[in-house]
Design brief:
Layout (H helix, E strand, L loop, with lengths): L28 E2 L1 H11 L5 E8 L4 E5 L5 E2 L5 H13 L8 E4 L12 H5 L4 E4 H10 L3 H11 L2 H10 L11 H6 L8 E2 L1 H12 L6 H12 L18 E7 L2 E2 L2 E12 L5 E11 L3 H19 L1 E2 L11 E2 L2
Parallel strand pairs: 1-3
Antiparallel strand pairs: 2-3, 2-11, 4-7, 5-6, 8-10, 9-10, 10-11, 12-13
Amino acid sequence: MDQAQTVRPEGTSNSAVTPTPLPTPVPEKIDIDLEYELKSIADGVEGEIGIGAVLLETGDAAYRWREGRFPMQSVYKLPIAMAVLKMVDDGKVRLDQQVAITPDDFVRPGFHSPIRNANPKGIVLSVSEIMRFSVSESDGTASDVLLDLAGGPAEVQKYLGSIGVTDLKVANSEKEISRDWDTQYRNSSTPEAAVKLLRVLHERLALSEASTVYLLGLMTETETGRNRLKGKLPDGTVVAHKTGTGGTEKGITGATNDIGIITLPDGRHIAIAVFVKDSAADSPTRESVIADIAKAVWDKWVFTVETPRRGEEREIFHR
């Protein structure tokens, strides 16, 4: 392997970036009826379920355990990717930059890593390819390489602070998470913070236009979680999302998550985060409740515009 192709920046820091004051978002309007419906769905599954959902263009919102802390697992690959893309925007990293991935970078067997499985001796990949593996395929090795490029957890946290997301914690690498059950709980988020991360991404407050479009494309192409947020939405619905799944110990699964941006037929957008923590339910049940939550939010906020009759304009709302 040609080590000369490896370029992992040293001495770069997101802390040098002066935080830009963020515009005030559309004020939230809590939908009490929807919150009650989501609570009824969540109560049907053993475990703790945190929910955040905001219709970005109007501020309609619904939460469950808004400020509760939930382990992210691979959801945390999204803020790591965003921190690296901010370095791309700042000219510190290039998407076509070549990075050598060695066996020392691999997450251990049992943790998802197509890169490790296909290349046991290592491989050289571009930052863009590594980003796709991390975001679209949830590759643990790829995420750790990106975390290294970003300068480690502390630098990711500085970046998140610069975009106003202060209650989402990236503390450990995938390799560190794999060594100890309790470590997963350190890499955590509240439903409110996850929705805020999605909002600043969607509204181009976190990255350049080019980087935002690129990342949302990778999230839309994601291979994991087909039965979660997307599971019960109409065919063809565009969902840019990132999943996360923990291991199971003594019949308890630490995390089953999905966060993302759902595009409604009229072009509006729902930022939604669902975290299922410490659940004794089986995987199909946990995924089904995430799908039911997304469908309930969709049903409440979606509308279609009927072709108006002569002299009449109206919107048809589906509840």
